[in-house]
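Lab notebook page, bench 4
Experiment: in silico fold of construct C2
Operator: M.H.
Input chain length: 42 residues
Purpose: comparison with the prior construct
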Amino acid sequence: MGKRGRETVGMALSILEHQVEHEEDLQSLREDLDLMVERRTT
């Protein structure tokens, strides 16, 4: 694999890593919101 190929792979891995972090943030937000709703209705 040439230099450009390695750079492309590196960029793709970086993007995927950020997507995973974003997904985890959204999951945490969802859990927090679920808890808030649960507390309000009990």
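Observations: The two ends are 59 Å apart (CA to CA). Residues 4 and 29 are 37 Å apart (CA to CA).
Next step: discuss at group meeting.
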